[in-house]
Amino acid sequence: MKQIIAIIRDERVEETKTALEKMGVRGVTFLYVTGRGDQKGTVSSRELGGVLNRNFRMPLTSPECTHQSPGSSQGTPRDPFSSEKEFAFGFLPKRMLIIIAYDDDVGPIVQAMVNVNQSGRHGDGRIFICPMISAIRVSTGEQGDKALS
Question: Which of 3, 12, 142, 148 lies at 20 to 30 Å from 122 by C-alpha?
Protein backbone atom coordinates (compact mmCIF):
# COMPACT_ATOMS: atom_id res chain seq x y z
CA MET A 1 0.00 0.00 0.00
CA LYS A 2 1.34 3.43 -0.99
CA GLN A 3 0.38 7.06 -0.52
CA ILE A 4 0.58 9.21 -3.66
CA ILE A 5 0.83 12.94 -3.04
CA ALA A 6 0.62 15.11 -6.13
CA ILE A 7 0.92 18.88 -6.41
CA ILE A 8 -0.60 20.09 -9.69
CA ARG A 9 -1.75 23.25 -11.43
CA ASP A 10 -5.24 24.32 -10.40
CA GLU A 11 -6.40 24.46 -14.03
CA ARG A 12 -5.56 20.74 -14.53
CA VAL A 13 -7.83 19.42 -11.78
CA GLU A 14 -10.80 18.48 -13.95
CA GLU A 15 -8.66 16.63 -16.51
CA THR A 16 -6.88 14.82 -13.68
CA LYS A 17 -10.17 13.81 -12.04
CA THR A 18 -11.45 12.48 -15.35
CA ALA A 19 -8.30 10.43 -15.98
CA LEU A 20 -8.41 8.95 -12.47
CA GLU A 21 -12.13 8.12 -12.75
CA LYS A 22 -11.51 6.33 -16.06
CA MET A 23 -8.92 4.18 -14.28
CA GLY A 24 -11.38 3.32 -11.51
CA VAL A 25 -9.65 5.34 -8.79
CA ARG A 26 -12.36 6.18 -6.29
CA GLY A 27 -10.63 7.59 -3.22
CA VAL A 28 -8.96 10.94 -3.89
CA THR A 29 -8.61 13.93 -1.59
CA PHE A 30 -8.16 17.34 -3.23
CA LEU A 31 -6.81 20.25 -1.18
CA TYR A 32 -6.25 23.90 -2.05
CA VAL A 33 -2.63 24.73 -1.28
CA THR A 34 -0.11 27.47 -1.96
CA GLY A 35 3.59 26.97 -2.36
CA ARG A 36 6.66 27.42 -4.43
CA GLY A 37 9.29 25.19 -5.90
CA ASP A 38 12.22 25.62 -8.25
CA GLN A 39 10.75 28.77 -9.77
CA LYS A 40 10.68 30.38 -6.31
CA GLY A 41 7.10 31.57 -6.72
CA THR A 42 7.62 33.51 -9.95
CA VAL A 43 5.83 33.16 -13.24
CA SER A 44 6.49 34.98 -16.52
CA SER A 45 3.79 37.14 -18.08
CA ARG A 46 3.54 34.59 -20.91
CA GLU A 47 2.56 31.91 -18.42
CA LEU A 48 0.07 34.01 -16.47
CA GLY A 49 -2.80 32.75 -18.63
CA GLY A 50 -5.51 31.66 -16.20
CA VAL A 51 -3.41 32.34 -13.13
CA LEU A 52 -5.00 35.69 -12.36
CA ASN A 53 -8.46 34.20 -12.77
CA ARG A 54 -7.80 31.80 -9.92
CA ASN A 55 -8.73 32.49 -6.34
CA PHE A 56 -5.53 34.24 -5.26
CA ARG A 57 -4.71 34.45 -1.61
CA MET A 58 -1.32 36.11 -2.09
CA PRO A 59 -0.66 39.61 -3.51
CA LEU A 60 0.87 40.10 -6.94
CA THR A 61 4.09 42.08 -6.84
CA SER A 62 6.65 42.96 -9.42
CA PRO A 63 9.81 44.96 -8.93
CA GLU A 64 9.04 46.70 -12.23
CA CYS A 65 5.32 47.39 -11.81
CA THR A 66 5.80 50.90 -10.43
CA HIS A 67 8.09 53.74 -11.37
CA GLN A 68 8.97 56.98 -9.61
CA SER A 69 8.03 60.26 -11.23
CA PRO A 70 10.72 62.92 -10.81
CA GLY A 71 10.16 64.73 -7.51
CA SER A 72 7.43 62.28 -6.48
CA SER A 73 7.55 59.91 -3.55
CA GLN A 74 4.58 57.89 -4.81
CA GLY A 75 4.99 55.14 -7.40
CA THR A 76 2.81 55.28 -10.50
CA PRO A 77 1.39 51.97 -11.70
CA ARG A 78 2.56 50.68 -15.08
CA ASP A 79 1.03 47.92 -17.10
CA PRO A 80 2.61 44.94 -15.33
CA PHE A 81 1.72 42.48 -18.12
CA SER A 82 3.21 44.34 -21.07
CA SER A 83 6.45 42.37 -21.45
CA GLU A 84 8.29 39.18 -20.58
CA LYS A 85 8.75 40.23 -16.96
CA GLU A 86 8.63 37.82 -14.08
CA PHE A 87 6.12 38.35 -11.32
CA ALA A 88 6.94 37.32 -7.78
CA PHE A 89 3.91 35.76 -6.17
CA GLY A 90 5.72 34.39 -3.15
CA PHE A 91 3.45 31.36 -3.15
CA LEU A 92 1.38 30.19 -6.10
CA PRO A 93 -2.02 28.51 -5.73
CA LYS A 94 -1.92 24.80 -6.53
CA ARG A 95 -3.94 21.69 -5.79
CA MET A 96 -2.71 18.75 -3.76
CA LEU A 97 -4.12 15.29 -4.40
CA ILE A 98 -3.73 12.48 -1.92
CA ILE A 99 -4.42 8.92 -3.04
CA ILE A 100 -3.89 5.70 -1.10
CA ALA A 101 -3.45 2.85 -3.58
CA TYR A 102 -2.48 -0.79 -3.83
CA ASP A 103 1.18 -1.25 -4.75
CA ASP A 104 0.31 -2.66 -8.20
CA ASP A 105 -1.86 0.36 -9.04
CA VAL A 106 0.72 3.05 -8.22
CA GLY A 107 2.58 2.98 -11.57
CA PRO A 108 -0.51 3.39 -13.78
CA ILE A 109 -1.98 6.08 -11.50
CA VAL A 110 1.24 8.09 -11.51
CA GLN A 111 1.64 7.72 -15.28
CA ALA A 112 -1.93 8.92 -15.87
CA MET A 113 -1.32 11.99 -13.71
CA VAL A 114 1.96 12.76 -15.49
CA ASN A 115 0.28 12.42 -18.91
CA VAL A 116 -2.49 14.84 -17.97
CA ASN A 117 -0.36 17.42 -16.17
CA GLN A 118 2.85 17.52 -18.19
CA SER A 119 3.03 20.66 -20.31
CA GLY A 120 6.80 21.09 -20.28
CA ARG A 121 6.56 24.41 -18.41
CA HIS A 122 7.84 25.28 -14.96
CA GLY A 123 5.22 24.61 -12.32
CA ASP A 124 3.66 21.49 -13.81
CA GLY A 125 3.93 19.92 -10.37
CA ARG A 126 5.49 17.12 -8.38
CA ILE A 127 4.38 13.62 -7.43
CA PHE A 128 5.60 11.91 -4.28
CA ILE A 129 5.15 8.23 -3.47
CA CYS A 130 5.35 7.19 0.17
CA PRO A 131 5.04 3.79 1.84
CA MET A 132 1.95 3.27 4.01
CA ILE A 133 2.21 1.19 7.14
CA SER A 134 -1.50 0.51 7.42
CA ALA A 135 -5.00 1.85 6.89
CA ILE A 136 -8.08 1.42 9.05
CA ARG A 137 -11.68 1.82 7.92
CA VAL A 138 -13.28 3.48 10.91
CA SER A 139 -16.83 2.22 10.26
CA THR A 140 -15.90 -1.49 10.16
CA GLY A 141 -12.49 -1.69 11.79
CA GLU A 142 -11.01 -3.39 8.70
CA GLN A 143 -7.26 -2.91 8.40
CA GLY A 144 -4.60 -2.99 5.69
CA ASP A 145 -5.58 -3.62 2.07
CA LYS A 146 -9.13 -4.59 3.13
CA ALA A 147 -9.67 -1.01 4.33
CA LEU A 148 -9.11 0.28 0.77
CA SER A 149 -11.75 -1.79 -1.01
Answer: 3
